[in-house]
Structure formats: C-alpha cells, structure tokens
C-alpha cells in the first residue's frame, strides 16, 4: 500500500455538504439527509481528508447490500484519484483468504457488514490502522445488527478513531435513535430537510397526491364478518382476565403481539394455567383475522383468498390450533364464503382499476416516463403487473428469498434494474426490497399501492423520485380503513422524528459545551487497577487461547463476547461434531434451552452425545437461556430430569446451564485457558484419529478447505479413490451437487498447485 495525496475531482461540494463535512471532521456525526442529496459525497470528502491526514491508514465504508457497495466504489472511481489497486470490495463472493490479501494492500475498503464482521471474528483483518468507518443506512445500528459490534470493536482497536453514520431517516422512536447514537459513538447530529435554506436550491420538488377510493359493498360485508370474528376473540381474551379496559376497535396488531409475548413469557416462567394457554391461542386467532382484514382493505380478494386457502390447509394437515379454531367460527366461515363468491364473480379491489387508470394517464402525459409502484405483498405485485401489462411494459421485482416460487438473485435484480435504467420497460412493480439497499434508477413517478405506517419506509419510498428533476408521488388510500390510519401515522412519525433529532442535537451540544462529549475509549484507572491489569497481561502474554468454532455459530453473540476476552484467537471451520473445540480432548455442543428440550424429545441429543464421546475424552454440553426449562414444551418434568441424568451418567458428559451469551463465553474461555495454558494441551480441527481405512480416507479429504465432513463422503463415492479425486478436472467437480464453479476451482488449485510457502515467495521476489 503506497501513500500519496488523495484529491477530489469532477465534484464541487454544495454548501450544505461543506457545512456537514466540517462537523464530521470535528466529531463522530450522524448525517440525516434526504435521498439523492449526496450522503455518499459527504463521506467521500471525509475519507479524502482522513487518508491525507493519516497517509498509512485505511478507510472503510459499510453498506447493507452488495448493490449499494458496488455503487459506492463507482463514486470513488469517478470522483477521486485513488488507484484501482488501492480499493477493494468485500462481499460473500470474495474468498476469505482473498479478502485477507486485499485488506493488506487496500487504502479504501467497501463491504457488507456481515462479511466484514466475520473477517474481524477470524482475525483476518485488524482495525488498528483504520482512520474512518462509514455506516450507511445507519438506522440499522440497533440490537445485534453487525454494525453495533463492528463499531464497538473499532472503538477498542483503532489508533485513529472516527465514525460517520448516514441515513435518510433514523425513525421516530426516541429510544431507538438514542440507541443508534450510542452504538455508533455519535457526538453530533447534522439534519437537513427539503425545507432547509441551504438545501432548497438543490431540491427539484416532489408533488405528493393522496388518491382516495371507496371500499365496495361486498368487500365491506366481508370485512364486517371478519370484524365480528375478531371482536369475539378479544372478548374471550378479556373473559380470561386479560386486556381489561380495552376494546377491539382500539387494539392494534402490535398490541395483540405484545400480549402474546407477555403470555408466552408467563408460560415459560412456569405459569401453566389453562386461562394463559387459551388466551395465547385466542391471540393467535385474532392476529390471523387482523391480517385477513388488512388484505381485504388494502390489497385485493386474490391475496385474501390465497391466505384463506393457506389457513384451511393448516387446519386440515397440521396441528396449528389457531387455524383449526378459525374454521369453527361462523363469522369467519361467512367471510371466507363471501370472499370466494367475490373472487368467482371477478370483482376486484378498486385500487387495481385506479392504478391502471393512473398509469395510463401518466404515460399519456409523458410517454418516456419511468414509474415505480410499491406494494407490501408479493401476491399484489403479480396482480398489479397483470393489470398494467396491456398499457405499459411492466416487470415484477422481489427480494432474494424464494416464497411461493418467487424470488430474484442479486444478479437478476441488477439485470432488471439495468433494463429499467435503459428504458427497456417503463413500469417496475416492487415489494419493499426497492425501498433501500439497491441502486434504483431515477424515476418520474412513484405510486404507493398502500400507505405505510413507518416514517422510515415512507421517506425511502418517496425519495425514489425528485432527485434530479421534479417528481410526483401518488398514494392510494381506501377510505375508512387502516389505509387512512397508516397515512397519518407516517405523517406524525416523520414530524416527531425531526423534533426528536433536533432535541438530541441540542442535548449533544450542551454536553459538549460542558466538556462531556463522547467518553475516552480507555477509562481512567487508579494505580492499583493499573498494577492488576499489568499483572494479568504479564500472566497471559504469549499464551494465545485458540478456539475452533463451527461456521454455523459465526453470527452468535457468544463469539463476539469471546473476542472481547484476552488473547482469544478464533478459527471458523465446518465441524462434524460439536460447536466449540477447546483442545484435542474438550469439545462443547452448544444449545439454547428451546433447542435442548427439542433435541431431548426427538432424541437427537443422544446421537450427538455418542459422537462427542467417540471423538473427545472430555466433551461438554452447554445450554443457554433464562427460560424455565420445564415450561418450554408439554413434557413431563421427571422425563427431562431423566434425560439430563442419562447424559451425565450414561454418557459421562456434564451439562452446564448458562443464562447469557457473556456467561457462556466466560465458561468457554476459562475451560480453553485451563486446557491450553495450564494443562498444555494442543488443539486441532479433527477429533480422535480414525481407525478404519474408509474413515482415514474421509478424514484426509474432509481436511481440504471448502470440503469438510459433509462433502467428503459424496466426493469419495463419486471418484472412488483419493488419487482419482486429485486428478479430477474442474468440470468433473462441478457435476457434484453443492459444488459450484468457484468452490470447484478452489479445490482444484489446492490439489494441483505447486507448494510454495511465504518464505519461498519472498525468495522468488528477491531473485
């Protein structure tokens, strides 16, 4: 990595960007800026500043999706003189060892947070020399999202600590905004709206129209039946002693979900009263009815009919009690019958006619226009696209997850957006996937098929137009339904968001005036504390605590807690047995309490116990959770005690119960330290050496990276011998299920490349 002066080119900062940049230079700043007003360019200015201030340092920009990451690097390619070889993109498609190599040479890294977090966990990268991290879509920095741990790790490691968070809308909840600010070590907030004087000259304007629609008579009748069914469930819940003082009309879906969570907590706490269990079932029924009403009011009978069909299948073919009970309810059955009649008669929700009329009118006014239609549900995407196909060129747009056979890979998403940008079609009908995280081309019109109650989502949808030219937004609202409630909910939340942000900004300003800005990363210590710390450092110096962790645990909070402990080095691998290997004799099988009880019921834990005992002389089962173990499932208490006794006595495997990830990590650390430091035991990926010939063959093949135990058996079955496997071509390897082109090439390279150590490579360079 060669240091040189970084300069900005072909970009003249706007006044508000310069003002925000000056704040970011002084303090860790949360930048709240409407979509299209250049948040990335503010980051670019700050990145250039930090790279010139600390020439040997690195800068990182994190974004939640690969398309966003690709978008960032294009901005830097076009607007700075940073060399291509000094920039790197980290995504899941880049092999871990390649990312390590890229990190060593890069000055600027763009990455998705999950992959970046994994590289930190496995010590492939260090944040010591990082002078700036940008967190795009910073409102995600709550709870266990990867941003939170990365920021914490950065605050502990970096010599040049600086953070910038960027978002169009952090939400309206004061506690959540505070949580984001705390998690990202924010010291200042820079907010701009379309109305601010330094922003107004650059706003092309968004004309927002609310399009009101009447609910047809038959729809209203079906809704009436569903509301009566819903009210009957709420009344029965009240009879059980819950929701006192509340009526069905003033309860939201969130209220019912909250009640359900409280009741489940009662149940796991040991309260198995019949009233509690009945109330849980009734709440589940109420939630299903509530969802049905939402589909009827805001979507179409097509979506509702599909939902009813799904519930009916559940009632017949599964043991889901709530679904079974619904079809015993006369009001619910009447609603279902009426909806089927409406559907068979070809009656549609008037929104479908209205959206067809609206798109036709817009295309007539501006034939070359691009239109983006948002809707909540995939069923509605198909229905709307079908309605519009006669008057416009339409494409459907979904997320990656396959639901009912519908789903798009990132590559397919990118291709569709490229075609949209090139005017190969003019109307894109999308689920919420197009709200953030994708490089959506500029559109002339945005249509909401329904209002959304979230201020964040409303702002993101609206921000897809009016970036470089004036835009129009149309929001369809069914009168006297939740559509109207959602309209005003988003409106008030957005107003509240700006009030909250303004109040927080003033609070931070007062703190800074009082000299109470973000606390130093190292708290001041007394002489006694310092002496204790030095003694501990001296005791542990030179003793790395190595822990091999199963790949499936890489997102676990336990791993993050382990990494905060002295001298821990983690190695992620595919483990056939257990989740944490602490030495050649100790392996831990980790479970949550719920999973533990399930594995007792289906006897899975005993198969795992056999494997643990066969592979390790001192295996451990560790169970984490605060729930009451005996209330999680309907199983006799003594049966659970008997199962645990069998594990401890028959299998000679101790079962350790922990409450939190921190407590779990503390046990793992102490056992690993005892094994490796005190008892001087070694640690390796494989368990006890195999004895039979076929076990030895599997052992050898499974040790090859990208193969592991799961693929070793089918590979040997396919090729017969290790020699034949070693001679296989890439095309031969691809034929096997679960081996793609990249994995096949990696395996081929390991088996066929000439052996060269790092020392050998250095010698070659010198020659």
How are the SSEs ordered, and which strands pair?
Elements: H1 15-26, E1 29-32, H2 39-53, E2 58-62, H3 66-79, E3 87-90, H4 96-105, E4 108-111, H5 113-121, E5 130-136, H6 146-157, E6 163-167, H7 174-183, E7 188-191, E8 206-213, H8 217-239, H9 253-268, H10 274-298, H11 301-317, H12 321-326, H13 330-344, H14 350-365, E9 371-374, H15 378-388, E10 394-397, H16 410-421, E11 427-430, E12 445-448, H17 455-462, E13 471-478, H18 482-513, H19 527-540, E14 545-550, H20 557-563, E15 568-573, E16 580-581, E17 587-592, H21 593-601, H22 604-615, E18 620-624, H23 637-649, E19 655-658, H24 661-678, H25 693-702, H26 708-719, H27 722-726, H28 730-734, H29 741-752, H30 758-766
Parallel strand pairs: 1-6, 1-7, 2-4, 2-5, 3-4, 5-6, 8-13, 9-11, 9-12, 10-11, 12-13, 14-15, 17-18, 18-19
Antiparallel strand pairs: 14-16, 16-17
Helix pairs in contact: 1-2, 5-6, 8-10, 8-13, 9-10, 11-13, 14-15, 17-18, 20-24, 25-26
| Spatial arrangement of strands, main beta sheet | 3-4-2-5-6-1-7
- Taking pLDDT < 50 over at least 5 consecutive residues as the criterion, the unreliable ranges are 515-540
Number of strands: 19
Termini Cα gap: 22 Å
Q: Indicate the proportion of strand residues.
A: 5-15%
**Shape, please?**
globular
């Amino acid at each position: 990595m060669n240091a040189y002066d970084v300069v900005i080119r072909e970009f003249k900062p706007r006044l508000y960007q310069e003002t925000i940049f000056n704040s970011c230079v002084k303090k860790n700043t949360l930048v709240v800026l409407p979509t299209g007003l250049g948040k990335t360019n503010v980051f670019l200015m700050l990145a250039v500043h930090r790279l010139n201030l600390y020439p040997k340092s690195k800068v990182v920009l994190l974004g939640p999706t690969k398309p966003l990451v690709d978008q960032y690097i294009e901005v830097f390619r076009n607007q700075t003189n940073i060399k291509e070889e000094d920039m790197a993109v980290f995504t899941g498609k880049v092999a871990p060892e390649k990312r390590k190599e890229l990190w060593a040479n890069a000055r600027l890294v763009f990455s998705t947070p999950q992959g970046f977090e994994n590289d930190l966990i496995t010590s492939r990268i260090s944040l010591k020399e990082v002078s700036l991290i940008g967190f795009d879509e910073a409102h995600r920095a709550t709870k266990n999202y990867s941003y939170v741990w990365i920021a914490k790790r950065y605050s502990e490691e970096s010599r040049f600590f600086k953070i910038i968070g960027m978002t169009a809308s952090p939400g309206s909840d004061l506690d959540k905004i505070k949580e984001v600010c705390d998690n990202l070590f924010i010291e200042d907030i820079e907010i701009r709206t379309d109305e601010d004087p330094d922003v107004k000259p650059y706003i092309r304007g968004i004309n927002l129209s609310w399009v009101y629609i009447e609910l047809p008579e038959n729809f209203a009748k079906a809704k009436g039946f569903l509301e009566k069914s819903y009210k009957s469930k709420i009344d029965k819940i009240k009879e059980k002693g819950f929701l006192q003082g509340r009526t069905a009309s003033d309860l939201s879906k969130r209220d019912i979900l909250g009640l359900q969570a409280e009741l489940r907590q009662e149940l796991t706490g040991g309260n198995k009263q019949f009233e509690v269990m009945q109330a849980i079932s009734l709440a589940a029924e109420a939630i299903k009815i509530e969802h049905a009403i939402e589909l009827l009011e805001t979507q179409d009978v097509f979506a509702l009919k599909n939902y009813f069909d799904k519930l009916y299948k559940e009632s017949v073919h599964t043991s889901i009690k709530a679904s079974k009970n619904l079809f015993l309810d006369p009001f619910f059955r009447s609603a279902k019958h009426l909806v089927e009649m409406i559907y068979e008669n070809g009656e549609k929700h008037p929104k479908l006619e209205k959206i067809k009329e609206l798109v036709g009118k817009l295309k007539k006014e501006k034939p070359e226009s691009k239109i983006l239609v948002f809707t909540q549900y995939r069923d509605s995407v198909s229905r709307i696209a079908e309605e519009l196909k006669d008057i416009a060129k339409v494409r459907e747009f979904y997320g990656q997850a396959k639901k009912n056979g519908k789903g798009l890979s990132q590559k397919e998403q990118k291709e569709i957006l490229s075609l949209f940008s090139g005017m190969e079609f003019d109307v894109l009908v999308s689920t919420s996937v197009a709200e953030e995280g994708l490089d959506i081309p500029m559109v002339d019109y945005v249509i909401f098929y329904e209002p959304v109650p979230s201020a964040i989502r409303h702002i993101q949808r609206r921000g897809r137009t009016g970036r470089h030219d004036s835009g129009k937004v149309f929001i369809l609202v069914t009168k006297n339904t939740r559509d109207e409630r959602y309209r005003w909910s988003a409106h008030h939340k957005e107003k509240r968001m700006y009030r909250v942000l303004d109040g927080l900004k003033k609070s931070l300003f007062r703190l800074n005036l009082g000299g109470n800005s973000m606390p130093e990363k190292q708290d001041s210590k007394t002489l006694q504390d310092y002496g204790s710390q030095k003694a501990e450092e001296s005791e542990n110096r030179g003793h790395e605590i190595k822990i091999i962790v199963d790949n499936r645990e890489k997102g676990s909070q336990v791993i993050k807690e382990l990494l905060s402990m002295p001298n821990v080095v983690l190695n992620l691998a595919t483990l056939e047995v257990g989740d944490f290997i602490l030495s050649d004799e100790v392996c831990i099988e980790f479970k949550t309490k719920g999973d533990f009880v399930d594995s007792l019921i289906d006897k899975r834990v005993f198969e795992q116990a056999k494997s643990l005992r066969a592979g390790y002389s001192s295996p451990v089962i560790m169970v984490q959770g605060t729930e009451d173990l005996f209330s999680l499932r309907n199983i006799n208490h003594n049966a659970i005690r008997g199962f645990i006794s069998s594990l401890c006595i028959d299998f000679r495997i101790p079962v350790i119960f922990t409450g939190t990830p921190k407590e779990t990590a503390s046990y793992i650390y102490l056992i690993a330290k005892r094994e490796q430091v005190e008892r001087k035991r070694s640690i390796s990926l494989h368990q006890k050496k195999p004895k039979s010939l076929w076990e030895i063959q599997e052992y050898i093949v499974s040790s090859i990276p990208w193969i592991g135990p799961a693929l070793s058996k089918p590979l040997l079955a396919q090729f017969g011998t290790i020699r034949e496997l070693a001679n296989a071509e890439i095309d031969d390897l691809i034929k096997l299920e679960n081996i793609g082109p990249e994995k096949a090439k990696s395996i081929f390279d390991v088996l066929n490349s000439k052996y060269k150590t790092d020392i050998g490579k250095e010698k070659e360079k010198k020659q």
